[in-house]
Design brief:
With 179 residues, the protein is an all-alpha fold. The protein contains 8 helices and no strands.
Length: 179
């Protein structure tokens, strides 16, 4: 039952991450309110999993990873290479994905970040004219909305975790035993 509640919380995180990505793309801002809400949802989900499994390892790993990401990216914010919202969002993502999702998140983040930089540097790859003009405007300003690849990688990781959990429940025969 607690795992189902945890999956429900993770499902609520997906639209919020999509909203954060859209706002970061359009306004280059990631609000503290959204980051704090994501942190609370992530902590709630992790706590439910920890109680159900009887192990706090995933929670501890997420805390350590969040701290390491924040301290590693903070100097880049001071040097004005990334925004403060991007740093805070990256520090919160380990709480959303959990310790077991960090490897998948890292790979997906690399893929989405490379794609974002490629699109920013070659906006003519895009089909729509207005969208292309907007990307060129961002490139001239020197702004790259890194909240978009961070959110996209987190959404894909969470969606995979939900799918894997549902596939495990479906294949284990638990549903057949309940009927």
């Amino acid at each position: 039952m607690l795992f189902a509640a945890s999956l429900s919380i993770k499902a609520l995180v997906i639209p919020l991450l999509a909203w954060v990505a859209w706002i970061d793309f359009s306004a280059q801002k990631i609000s503290n309110r959204n980051v704090l809400l994501l942190l609370c949802l992530g902590l709630g989900s992790l706590q439910l999993v920890s109680i159900a499994s009887g192990s706090w390892w995933d929670m501890g790993l997420s805390v350590i990873a969040g701290f390491v990401l924040f301290t590693a990216l903070f100097p880049f914010w001071i040097l004005r290479k990334v925004g403060a919202g991007d740093v805070k969002l990256m520090a919160v993502v380990p709480f959303l994905t959990g310790g077991n999702g960090l490897a998948l998140f890292s790979v997906l983040l690399l893929v989405f970040a490379v794609a974002t930089v490629a699109i920013m540097k070659n906006p003519f790859m895009l089909p729509a004219g207005a969208f292309r003009v907007y990307i060129q405007h961002l490139d001239r300003k020197g702004v790259v909305p890194f909240g978009v690849p961070i959110s996209a990688a987190a959404i894909c990781t969470i969606a995979f975790q939900i799918y894997a959990s549902l596939a495990l429940v479906g294949s284990s025969g638990i549903l057949q035993q309940l009927n």
